[in-house]
């Protein structure tokens, strides 16, 4: 017997443990080399684990097991040959011996249960069905004496008139709700998200400052140029690219908001990598769009679409999940009116977008109905002063309300 041991491979520099989320092949099944046998879930992505040889798969680990890098997952017995022509057909079932028919009564024939002519006349007069009479004659024949002794079945009692309805009374219906509990192990991604959020809350001087933006001119911009934009680039001009460009311009002007803290040092970046929060079935992921300061609106929209598609299909690579100097999260797509987003460590700031609501506001000396959005900037006060955080958010507000400034980079 020749056995190949399948161990958890090195996945990434920062990943020391994975969870075996599901087996893709059955225990004892024949697998071919490079055929995926199971899936691993790390704190960043879900990865398929291919077979290193062809042979019979032997489970060692179980689903939901937490495995360190290098831990034994399964074994492959390479001495087992591939089944010829696929799995063999199941052998035909041996027909069971037919059950013996119950032996007929010794003297059963036409006479059994059949009345004699005299008996038939008496039964007819009495209105009795011969089938209801047991014959005592030869072979079970119904004799005259049987007919004379037979009595008609009592008539069914007449249906009683329905009683008058009782006074209405309420009877509680049986409870239809459930009181069951279900216990499920948190996915590795959810556990990692929970750990990082608690770390961000407990180990940073996090504050949030708020403002609001009048989205009127952005609505006009999109309405005026949307058709031409789609025709040229094959994608719609959304809010996210406009917000990303506004933040990138403000970040380049205020580098401390784009900085990260490393011990007693601040690391400043001459580029803007914006992590875009994307909601998936397994949790929130924040893959970054690199060098937003140098990208066009169309390039940003296409990149976000690509990352969102990969995130929701579980195909983001570790490289695509790494990095980022600033984050944007859009709770408004779920109807959020206002929130305080939590920092995406080691970044120092995150912008929260919210629902766009038409509200009456003062425009000069008039009250007008305008589409308004609340903006929230959470920041690490150890890195960013209050004055800088407020100034950053005001700058973003100005660029959103006058997108011509944004396009002219002024």
Question: Which short descriptors sum up this protein?
Answer:
7-stranded mixed sheet, alpha+beta, 24% strand, 2 domains, 4-stranded antiparallel sheet, 410 residues, single chain, Chloramphenicol Acetyltransferase, OB fold (Dihydrolipoamide Acetyltransferase, E2P)
Topology:
Layout: E1 3-7, E2 17-23, E3 30-31, E4 36-41, E5 46-50, E6 55-59, E7 66-68, E8 72-77, H1 117-126, H2 144-149, H3 188-202, E9 206-214, H4 216-233, H5 239-253, E10 260-262, E11 265-267, E12 274-276, E13 278-280, E14 283-285, E15 288-289, H6 297-312, H7 318-321, E16 326-330, E17 349-353, E18 356-363, E19 366-380, H8 386-401, H9 403-408
Short overview:
This protein has helices at 117-126, 144-149, 188-202, 216-233, 239-253, 297-312, 318-321, 386-401, 403-408; strands spanning 3-7, 17-23, 30-31, 36-41, 46-50, 55-59, 66-68, 72-77, 206-214, 260-262, 265-267, 274-276, 278-280, 283-285, 288-289, 326-330, 349-353, 356-363, 366-380. It has 410 residues and is α+β, with helices and mostly antiparallel strands. The longest helix has 18 residues, at 216-233.
Number of helices in the DSSP assignment:
9
Mean pLDDT: 85
Largest sheet: 7 strands, mixed
Instruction: Note the gap between the termini.
Output: 73 Å
**How is the CATH topology of the largest domain named?**
Chloramphenicol Acetyltransferase
Helix content: 25-40%
Q: What share of residues are in beta strands? A: 15-25%
One letter per element, helices H and strands E, the order comes to: EEEEEEEEHHHEHHEEEEEEHHEEEEHH
The structure class reads: alpha+beta
Task: Give me the Rg, rounded.
Answer: 40 Å
Q: Based on DSSP secondary structure assignment, what is the total number of beta strands?
A: 19
CATH superfamily of the largest domain: Chloramphenicol acetyltransferase-like domain
At the first level of CATH, the class of the largest domain is: Alpha Beta
Secondary-structure arrangement, i.e. CATH architecture of the largest domain:
2-Layer Sandwich
């Amino acid at each position: 017997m020749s056995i190949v041991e399948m161990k958890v491979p090195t996945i990434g520099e920062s990943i020391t443990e994975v969870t075996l989320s599901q087996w893709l092949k059955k225990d004892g099944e024949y697998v071919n080399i490079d055929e995926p046998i199971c899936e691993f879930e790390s704190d960043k992505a879900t990865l398929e684990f291919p077979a290193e040889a062809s042979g019979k798969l032997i489970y060692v680990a179980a689903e939901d097991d937490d495995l360190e890098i290098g831990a034994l997952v399964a074994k492959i017995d390479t001495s087992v040959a591939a089944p010829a022509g696929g799995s063999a057909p199941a052998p035909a079932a041996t027909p069971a011996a037919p059950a013996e028919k119950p032996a007929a009564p010794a003297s059963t024939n036409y006479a059994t249960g059949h009345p004699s002519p005299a008996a038939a006349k008496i039964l007819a007069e009495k209105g009795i069905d011969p089938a209801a009479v047991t014959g005592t004659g030869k072979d079970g024949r119904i004799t005259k004496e049987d007919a004379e002794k037979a009595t008609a079945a009592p008539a069914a009692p007449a249906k009683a008139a329905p009683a008058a309805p009782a006074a209405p009374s309420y009877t509680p219906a049986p409870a239809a709700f459930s009181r069951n509990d279900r216990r499920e192990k948190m996915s590795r991604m959810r556990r990692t998200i929970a750990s990082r959020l608690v770390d961000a809350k407990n180990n940073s001087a996090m504050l949030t400052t708020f403002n609001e933006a009048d989205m009127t001119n952005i609505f006009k911009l999109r309405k005026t140029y949307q058709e031409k934009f789609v025709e040229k680039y094959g994608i719609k001009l959304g809010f996210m690219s406009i917000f990303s460009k506004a933040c990138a311009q403000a970040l380049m002007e205020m580098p401390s908001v784009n900085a990260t803290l490393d011990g007693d040092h601040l690391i400043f970046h001459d580029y803007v990598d914006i992590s875009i929060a994307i909601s998936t079935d397994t949790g929130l992921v924040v893959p970054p769009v690199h060098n937003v300061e140098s990208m066009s609106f169309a390039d940003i929209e296409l990149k976000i679409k690509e990352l969102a598609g990969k995130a929701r299909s579980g195909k983001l690579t570790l490289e695509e999940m790494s990095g980022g100097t600033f984050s944007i999260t859009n709770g408004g797509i779920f109807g959020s009116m206002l929130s305080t987003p939590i920092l995406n460590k080691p970044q120092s700031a995150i912008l929260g977008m919210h629902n766009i609501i038409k509200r009456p506001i003062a425009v000069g000396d008039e009250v007008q109905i305008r589409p308004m959005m609340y903006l929230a900037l959470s920041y690490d006060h150890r890195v960013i002063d209050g004055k800088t955080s407020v100034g950053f958010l005001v700058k973003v507000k100005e660029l959103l309300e006058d997108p011509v400034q944004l396009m002219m980079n002024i």
